[in-house]
Structures
1.
Amino acid sequence: MKDRLEQSKALASNARLSILTWLSDPDAHFSHQATGRPSDIGVCVTLITAKLDMAQPTVSRHLELLRRAGFLSVNKIGRWSYFQRDEAAISEFKGWINDHL
């Protein structure tokens, strides 16, 4: 079980919530990814950076917080990082919220 406080903090950002929303249907939001189907390999950081219209280090920080919270997994292909939602972890967190609020 991940630290619930860390998970809650990871969700306390519109940018991070947007990332999770987009990655729930990556083929619809990132269909222009040339290196592979987003639902198969994940979404490249550069595409998430462009969609957020933020600096790459800022986006990387958001992605790292979501990864540490357990909501994202990263797939490294060469020098590129591709991110996907961890649906099991998200579902577990939702269940915990439902049970404790």
2.
Amino acid sequence: MSDNNQWVEAGALADIPRSGARPLNTSGGVIAVFRTCDDQVFATGNKCPHRGGPLAQGMVYGQRVQCAMHGLNIDLAAGKAVAPDVGCVETYPVKVENGRIWVNLVPVAASSCACAA
């Protein structure tokens, strides 16, 4: 199945501060787009698996985000909570072209985790 038509522009890389995030509103819900201090970009579902808090409002450090509501830590690359926390969020393919961020709306399959909405 081709997913070429599933890419949406999420804005300019420069619009997200280093170690920051922005919500991306889509027809399927909100995706959180993160920029690390070394300019890596990740996208996950925006709802924390603990209590549904908005991950785009969390604190980004390294390749992790800490939920602003209750402190649950998520690995941005894998979408999984960092032990001792449990849970996961969907992750989405991301690419940066000419300074613009693109997010694929087809999530990466979460193989060993039943993601909470």
3.
Amino acid sequence: MPSHPHEHSPARGWPVDTDVEAEDIVRHDTPDHPHRPALDPKRLVAVVAGGFVGGLVRDEIVTHWATRSGHFPWSIFVVNTAGAFVLGVLVIVVLDVLAASRYLRPLVGAGFCGALTTFSSVAVADDQLLWHGHVAVGIAYLIVSLAAGLAAAALGAGLARALPPTPARRRLDGGAV
């Protein structure tokens, strides 16, 4: 695997995914399925487990914090914003701090955050607001959701970058170990 997660695969000149070994991509290339890595059952289990927990958390929050018709859907807003924050932290932790981790991103990113946050819930909530004549709330909800999600992801990434450097991170930054 390249020494830096943002390095390009020597075989392809493409960025290397930190969850996929470059050797796996090259070994499993076929004319019908270029760049197709072998399925890792452990990563699949990580995604399923994370998705199960993320879905339960989302369901509990949305079920116990119901939104009245015509009102700002706070429960959906909060879980999606929290998920954006967690993803912001996760991206930096996986790429800069724990570059060798193969299961953290599938477990927390694709699994937990994928089930916790869904754009479809934003679209459905906004559609219901607009359909029932709550145009101002619907427009505000879309704008505030987008801004909060971006801000939360940036805050999460910023806080993760403030973590003390690990030996692997110092090597990536060009420092001595």
